[in-house]
Amino acid sequence: MKFCSNCGHKVNFEIPQGDHRVRAVCPNCFTIHYENPRLITGTLPVYQGKILLCKRGIEPKAGFWTLPGGFMENEESLAEGALRETWEEACCKPVIQQLLSVVSLPPINQVHCFYLAKMETGEFSITPESIEIQLFEINEIPWEDVAFRTVKATLEHYCQFKDLAPGALPLLETAIYPNKPI
Ligand SMILES: [Zn+2]
Q1: Strand pairing class (130-136; 50-56)
Q2: Where are the alpha helices (DSSP H) in the chain?
Q3: What pTM was computed for the model?
Q4: 4: helix, coil or strand?
Q5: Going by DSSP bridges, is the β-strand pair 65-66/12-14 parallel, antiparallel, or unpaired?
Q6: Distance from residue 17's CA to the centre of ligand 1 (Å)
Q7: Pick from 78, 83, 71: which is nearest to 108 by CA?
Q8: Using CA atoms, how far apart are residues 47 and 14, in angstroms rounded to an integer?
Q9: What domains can be seen in the chain, in order of their start residue?
Q10: Cα(109) to centroid of ligand 1, in Å?
Q11: Is 90 helix (H, G, I), strand (E, B) or coil?
Q12: Distance, CA 33 to ligand 1 centroid (Å)?
């Protein structure tokens, strides 16, 4: 940020009184512009034991497989955002069963959250964001072509505990740093 989003004045970078981090501070209207991590919310949809994956039609990672998910919007809950993204990316309306993973990415200031969700019908369809959508058996997951490490971690976690009753799977809560295995 170079200019104040409140009044348009050039901002200064300084540590506000009582704070411990450098912030963009407007010397004109005195607004302090805090920047905080962004939340990505999505689902791991399951239909009759198979996992729904979407092949990305857009960058980043076009052509790679992912779980439906995206940036949480204002005025929605984490779960509502996950279902909205699942609809937008896969025209799929699963039922949420439990929170499955919360993965922090400190280097890029994001937190990725995925819910386990049950598809009551096998209905889905491609969208502008997903050029191909497929239900994969556990042993068919294209691990080498999974788009994001948070998605891979969530899929691995699900595969490990998939035989437990929905609602009883442990929560994966971890952080991923560059070049560090989780
Ligand atoms: Zn200002």
Answers
A1: antiparallel
A2: 78-90, 149-161
A3: 0.92
A4: coil
A5: unpaired
A6: 17
A7: 71
A8: 52
A9: 1-35 (2.20.70.10), 38-175 (3.90.79.10)
A10: 24
A11: helix
A12: 9
**What's the residue count for the chain?**
182
41 CA distance to ligand 1 centroid (A)?
A: 32
CA of 36 to the centre of ligand 1 (A): 19
Q: From ligand 1's centre to the CA of 20, what distance in Å?
A: 21
| Residues, Cβ < 5 Å to ion ligand 1 | 4, 6-7, 9, 26, 28-29, 31
Tokens 């948070």 locate to 150
At 75, is the secondary structure helix, strand, or coil? coil
Return per-residue pLDDT of the chain as tens, 182 residues.
899 999 999 999 999 999 999 999 999 999 999 999 999 999 999 999 999 999 999 998 999 999 999 999 999 999 999 999 999 999 999 999 999 999 999 999 999 999 999 999 999 999 999 999 999 999 999 999 999 999 999 999 999 999 999 999 999 999 999 766 54
Distances (CA, A) of 83 to 15, 41, 93: 39, 9, 7
Quick one: tokens of 49? 């034991």
β-bridge partners, 84: none
